[in-house]
From TrEMBL:
NCBIfam families in UniProt: AcCoA-C-Actrans (TIGR01930), PRK06504.1 (NF005077)
Protein name: Acetyl-CoA C-acyltransferase
Domain Thiolase N-terminal, chain residue ranges per copy: 5-263
Pfam families assigned to the protein according to its UniProt record, in alphabetical order: Thiolase_C, Thiolase_N
Active site: 89 (acyl-thioester intermediate), 350 (proton acceptor), 380 (proton acceptor)
Annotated source species: Verticiella sediminum
Domain called Thiolase C-terminal: residue spans: 272-393
Top EC group: transferase
């Protein structure tokens, strides 16, 4: 079986809700990432055999197969197909898995895995909200409700609080982690560690007007964040809660992508690989606590790969809520100094369907900067799932 290699990885800088990317149609945002991947590899666009794009809010401007629409809005020829993937927050990480599986099988040689989400223009939960307004029902079917009789609706907010209680994480610990995310992200941005991975884009504001400058820095980073300021933010769950908006991921607009090839694709493109896909796996877990899946998923992935936690040089664990990476550290015994070294979604934003390849982009570039060998990425996903990807820097 062939190997799967990442030869290019790029992302937009995150835009806050109503912020510097809010005037971008998500199709055009995704198209710019596709064009950037082609430009970075100097690839013949006709060699790309598929575009697999993660997107959670597949409604409105992100409906009608956003992947194919992004291809048609890009410089790629019409011969390049596209398909859209929804594995909730892990959508573009799953797109990467699908792309790697395609090139490893030999059925394709060059595939782009990407993700896009404009949470300004297609707010979180839009598909369900539109269906409810139209009287079209909800995702909790009678049998699903019967299987989980005490659950009115699966909730990430409930799951995040359940994790904080289960792993005995105090508000003070959660707030301190949030501050660390901002400090690490600010330090990385100031040191230029994101420059290679970020695709500069002209600012387009929500009203449609151009901002007159380029967007090159993640808009959610608060370099002046303080523990006192974070501690003053209202709790999400007032009665006994421990998490606030300050210790949760930021709503974000953004797009990201990686180009994945096999040995034949390497020869056709004439490029050197950045990384090799070493392991891929998925895991299903309790949908009520929901966000806990990365913990057993990581344990199983390492076992299947014949590795230990000490073998991994850098970790990217999505900061959906601070309780997730902190519980993950507790369960795995990983070195905290190797986790989310450039900050995470609490500071950088979580553009849902784009976060999978966004995290992989940051991980690959960080491995090169720090001369690490192995990196592991995982993230919690709606419905109680997790993807795990281990890559080797080349």
């Amino acid at each position: 079986m062939s190997e799967a290699y990442i030869v290019a990885a790029v992302r937009t800088a995150g835009g806050r809700r109503g912020g510097r990317l809010s005037g971008w149609h998500p199709v055009d945002l995704g198209a710019r990432v596709l064009d950037a991947l082609v430009a970075r590899t100097n690839a013949d666009p006709a060699l790309i055999e598929d575009v697999i794009m993660g997107c959670v809010g597949q409604a409105g401007e992100q409906s009608g197969n956003v992947a194919r629409n992004a291809v048609l809005a890009s410089s790629l020829p019409e011969s390049v197909p596209g398909t859209s993937v929804d594995r909730q927050c892990g959508s573009s990480q799953q797109a990467l898995h699908f792309a790697a599986q395609a090139v490893m099988s030999g059925s394709m040689d060059v595939v782009i895995a990407a993700g896009v989400e404009s949470m300004t223009r297609v707010p979180m939960g839009t598909p369900g909200i539109l269906a409810a307004k139209a009287g079209l029902g909800r995702y909790m079917s009678p049998q699903l409700q019967a299987n989980y009789p005490e659950v009115e609706s699966f909730s990430q907010f409930v799951g995040a609080e359940m994790m904080a209680r289960k792993y005995e994480l105090s508000r003070e610990q959660l707030d301190a982690y949030a501050l660390q995310s901002h400090k690490r992200a600010a330090a990385a941005a100031d040191a230029g560690r994101f420059e290679r991975e970020i695709l500069p884009l002209e600012v387009r504001l929500a009203g449609g007007e151009a901002g007159g400058e380029m967007h090159t820095r993640d808009e959610g980073i608060r370099a002046d964040a303080t523990l006192e300021g974070i501690a003053s933010v209202k709790l999400i769950q007032e009665d006994g809660g421990r998490l606030s908006a300050a210790s949760a991921s930021q709503i974000c607009d953004g797009a990201s992508g990686v180009m994945v090839v096999n040995e034949k694709g390497l020869r056709a493109l004439g490029v050197e690989p950045l990384a090799r896909i070493h392991h891929m796996s998925m895991f299903g877990h309790d949908p009520v606590i929901m966000l806990e899946a990365p913990l057993p998923a990581t344990e199983r992935a390492l076992r299947k790969a014949g590795m230990s936690i000490a073998d991994i040089d850098l970790f990217e664990v999505n900061e959906a809520f601070a309780s997730v990476p902190l519980a993950w550290l507790q369960a795995t015994g990983a070195d905290p100094a190797r986790l989310n070294v450039n900050g995470g979604a609490i500071a950088l934003g979580h553009p849902l369907g784009a976060s999978g390849t966004k995290l992989m982009t940051t991980l690959v570039h960080a491995l090169h900067q720090r001369k690490g060998r192995y990196g592991l990425q995982t993230m919690c996903e709606g419905g109680g799932m997790a993807n795990v990807t281990i890559v080797e820097r080349l």
